[in-house]
Amino acid sequence: MNILIVEDELRIAKRIERMTRDIFGSAIQSLKHLNTLHEALNYIENSKLDLVLLDLNLNGDNGFDLLTKAVSESFHTIIISAYKNQAITAFEHGVLDFVPKPFNQDRLAQAFNRATAKEKVENSKIRFLGIKKKGRTQLVPIEDIVYIKGAGVYTELFLIDGRKELHDKSLEKLEQLLSYSFERIHKSYLVKMSEIKEINVSSGSKYMAELKNGERIPIGRTKYKDIKAKWV
Amino acid sequence: MALVPDGQVFWSRTKIDILEAPETLKPYGLRLEVYGEYEVFWDGVLIGKNGNPGQEADLPPEGRLWTTFTIPAHLTNVGEHVMALRLSNYYYPDHTGNYGLKIDYYDDLLTDRLIQNSYMHVFAGAFLITAIYFLFLFIGNKKEYPALIFSISCLLFFGLTMTHFVKTTVPIHYSLHVIRLEVITSLMFGISFLIPLYFSMQFPYPKWKLILGIYTAILLFIFSIEHHLFDLTILNMTLSLLLFSLCIAVFGVYKKAKGALLVLLTLLLCIFIRHYVSLNISLFTGFSLILLNMLYLLSLRIKEQRLAYENSLVQSTRLRLELLKKNIQPHFLMNTLTSLIDWIEETPKKGVLFIEALAKEFDLLNQIENQTLIPISQEIALCRAHLEIMEYRKEVNYSWQEEDIDSEQKIPPGILHTLLENGITHSLPLKDNSIKFKLYFESSADYDCYTFLTYAEIVKQASAQRQEGTGLKYIKARLTESYHDLWELISEPAHHGWKNVIKIYR
Lengths: 232, 506
Description:
The complex is a heterodimer of chains A (232) and B (506). With 232 residues, chain A is α/β, with parallel strands linked by helices. Chain A is built from seven helices and 17 strands. Chain A has helices at 10-24, 37-46, 64-71, 87-92, 105-116, 171-178, 224-231; strands at residues 2-6, 30-34, 51-54, 57-58, 61-62, 76-81, 97-100, 128-133, 136-141, 145-151, 154-159, 164-167, 182-186, 189-192, 196-202, 206-211, 216-219. In chain A, strand 8 (128-133) and strand 9 form a beta hairpin. In chain A, helix 1 packs across helix 5. Chain A is elongated and about 65 Å long. Chain A starts with a strand and ends with a helix. Chain B is an alpha+beta fold. Chain B is built from twelve helices and 16 strands. Chain B has helices at 106-140, 145-164, 177-202, 208-224, 230-254, 260-276, 279-325, 330-346, 348-368, 376-394, 415-425, 470-483, and strands at 10-18, 28-34, 37-42, 45-50, 66-70, 79-88, 98-105, 374-375, 397-403, 410-411, 427-428, 434-443, 447-455, 457-458, 487-494, 497-505. In chain B, the strands form five sheets. Chain B has a five-stranded mixed β-sheet, with helices on one face. A four-stranded antiparallel β-sheet of chain B has the order 1-6-3-4, with no helix packed on it. In chain B, strand 3 (37-42) and strand 4 form a beta hairpin. The chains are: A alpha/beta (232), B alpha+beta (506). Chain A binds chain B through residues 9-12, 14-15, 35-38, 41, 57, 59-62, 65-66, 82-84, 100-104, and chain B through 330-331, 333-335, 337-343, 392-396, 422, 425-426, 428, 459-463, 469.
């Protein structure tokens, strides 16, 4: 695991670092602590990370820039903040968890568990996915997304207006974040359940989901029963 | 008419056509305004006597300027009549002549004046009450010069009205009449000066004192030349007053001052009135309109002051809350508690010291929270306590230095503390893991000055333009609360880190 801690309170940063080492043990490949927004943005740009632990109020700066930047990346983000009222914004932007200060090791472990156990997050609040476009971060509203297709380490977001956007998180990570309204109907597809118009069985017991926009998406053989049940 | 010096007797005859005979038992009367002591003859019959014509040099002044006589009913048939005055004019031989002659029913001549006077007295009384009321307001608040000027203007206008309508109530010998005219002209001078002064204060324009001085000089000039032509002097003063006030009002409208447009319209209305009615009527209607306007402006200002006062109360409460909030806002409290838990888990003894430091800051904050000025020593104690806490949180070696501090001096609570917080938040420690803060005090004849320096590396802000934080807003509001606009705050980067200067002018 490559982990980055962004926190300007040294004592707290040390605490997070200590607990993270305790929880992950030898699974940690690298653990970096940074003090400032500026350094953090640079580091995220140039390193391969699995998890970022982020304080939103750094040196008097509003961490919103860093938040939108972080959620558009391939890693999961966990916010550790003194401001509980930022939790909703954070979840809307698709963070994996929000740990309010003061925290203890159990709470931190619970958050980490979400990251490692690939456990689905019942996050009904998520409203955006961050995408990178022309060097900037844009937020795509979840309600505009019809389905998502895995494309290697990346994913492709298929939008209502027919556009296709690239997102840096893997399909597994998105499945975790979007489980409230999306289902993994195939190993390469994550579909918004409300967009499915019909489920068909075609010749050779191929299962297909027909979407409201007319597109047809395959349903995995193993998933069919489950999906059928949920869809009705 | 030729001059008749030394109070010698001369005759003045006036032909009068009576077009309609009086009703029975209601005799006609004759009202005269004549300089001199005289006897009145109607068709050769003596009908009245006013003083002792021809004997003025020997006898004391007798008689009055305004007199009314009855004309015997049998002498007022339709047709031509002659009124003859046998008079002498000892005091003003160059002012011979008949300044007023009116024939009407005798009863009406007397009562009309009384009725007019009673109205005018009520009118004047209103301005007297207003004058007294605003004088009291001024006494209650000595800074309210517009109220004083308005009060004096009302008083002068009251005086003007009373002197003007004195005819019926106070008998005046013709030799004293100049005094009345002098009084009227002087009152007019006062009013002509005060009204533009008032408008100048309400709608200030550049160099208004100088321009007002020039105006006063012009007014004095008008007052002094042709002084004996009282009506002309009054007319000229009124015109200059109107013109100058008009200019001020136009400037006020241009500057979008509240109420200026109404003043402008009123002044234009006055000029319009002056054009269409007699000097006397335009004088009284015009001035009452202008005074009403001044009253309206005052009420506007009083409303503004009340709002400003209410605002300042709200502001004080807000500032007090903001000071109290400092230590319970989540960023401070939750980060402190998190660090504290960590210290307690790791080294309980240090944790206890941390708690003690926290207790000290809370205690100090409690002592100052409801004050608007506190001794600088208390503020410094607060800063030191805060640094102690931050040392446990950030594990940076903070140091505090002070120079030339006069512990007697007072400053608003929490302002150095806020600068210190900003310094801590926006700084990274130097290579030796230290951040130094230094406070020094200078006092000169004009101002007291606190300089607060941060020796550290300043964090680059991600957002290009640094917004004015709530901290600086708090400091500015506190300084305004205690020193109005007699302060200056500079907060800027310096080669060693950050520099704050607070200047408080005397």
